[in-house]
Specification:
- The chain is globular.
- Helix 5 (about 160-165) packs across helix 6 (about 170-180) and helix 9 runs antiparallel to helix 10.
- By secondary structure, the protein is of the alpha/beta class.
- Helix 1 (about 40-55) links the parallel strand 2 and strand 3 (about 60-65).
- It has helices at about 40-55, 75-85, 90, 125-130, 160-165, 170-180, 185-190, 205-225, 230-240, 245-260, 265-275; strands at about 15-20, 25-30, 60-65, 70, 115-120, 120-125, 135-140, 145, 180-185, 195.
- The chain contains eleven helices and ten strands.
């Protein structure tokens, strides 16, 4: 598969890459015995993956999920504890996140959309990753939350300001001050989750994961069927509002900084022409 890419994907050891549909990349976190908690090496590995994804012309949508019974239960607290008790801890501290944040997603801007396929436990840093993904699909049996206060730490990888914009102040306070876990249905009602995949409580882990990923792939294929350029620019426009820019400024910046780069381009010309000719458009890879 890698021969079809402009450059080969980066090597991975803590996650795996697959390509379940044309133009779609699936990232699977693969530390199931540790509930897919991400260590310092994992953050750097994932950052390289998403950087490659953004620059690979044949890929348009990414999905991230977890192996086993967790999406991601947050930071690797065993590694954190080792760092805390190290003689060099007062001067060196913990290794910093990449600029893209926890799991290379919690503060990621990037070019292309990422879908979180939450198969089960989604806590702490895992939740911080999910809330900054562009779309979220979750199993009905999944549990989501920010339990940091129960461990004497704080969710400082980007979730707190984002959370209040999505669910409102009182709900955000409830989540981060109590450390409770919430079902996917509640998170859907609060606007965190786009789609809940109904699964039986006695269903096996592998079947739950398969169903959630299948729904995410279905959604990814729908997005990937649209103009790659228009998807990128639309996403940038929404994110300008997400980052707190006013409507007028955000619209003007989207128009000048992004829309101007695709206006009259191959995909715009093709989309209009295909509509007039009553046929499916033949998109080319984005050059943004």
């Amino acid at each position: 598969m890698s021969s079809a890419f402009a450059t080969p994907p980066p090597p991975t050891s803590l996650s795996s890459l697959s390509f379940p549909a044309p133009h779609v990349m699936l990232v699977t976190l693969r530390r199931p015995k540790s509930l897919n908690c991400i260590n310092s090496a994992g953050h750097q590995e994932l950052n390289a993956v998403y950087e490659w994804f953004d620059h690979e012309p044949s890929l348009r949508v990414g999905i991230v999920t977890g192996e086993g019974r967790a999406f991601c239960a947050g930071a690797d607290l065993k590694e954190w504890n080792t760092t805390n008790i190290s003689p060099s801890a007062p001067t060196q501290g913990r290794p910093p996140f990449p600029a893209s944040g926890f799991g290379a997603l919690s503060t990621r801007t990037g070019l292309k959309p990422i879908i979180a396929a939450i198969n089960d436990l989604c806590f702490g840093g895992g939740f911080e990753m999910a809330i900054n993904c562009d779309l979220v699909v979750a199993a009905s049996t999944a549990a989501l939350g920010l339990p940091e206060v129960k461990r004497g730490v704080v969710a400082v990888a980007g979730a707190l300001p984002r959370l209040v914009r999505v669910v409102g102040k009182q709900r955000a306070m409830e989540m981060c001050l109590t450390g409770r876990a919430y079902p996917a249905s509640t998170m859907a009602g609060w606007g965190v989750v786009n789609s809940v995949v109904e699964v039986g409580k006695g269903m096996g882990v592998e079947e739950v994961n398969r169903r959630v990923v299948n729904e995410a792939v279905r959604l990814a294929v729908e997005v990937a069927g649209n103009s790659p350029d228009a998807v990128i620019v639309s996403r940038q426009g929404v994110n300008m509002g997400w980052e707190g820019i006013g409507v007028r400024e955000g619209t003007e910046r989207a128009r000048k900084e992004w829309f101007s780069r695709i206006d009259g381009g191959e995909n715009m010309v093709e989309g209009v022409k295909a509509f007039v000719e009553k046929r499916a458009p033949r998109w080319v890879g984005s050059k943004l």
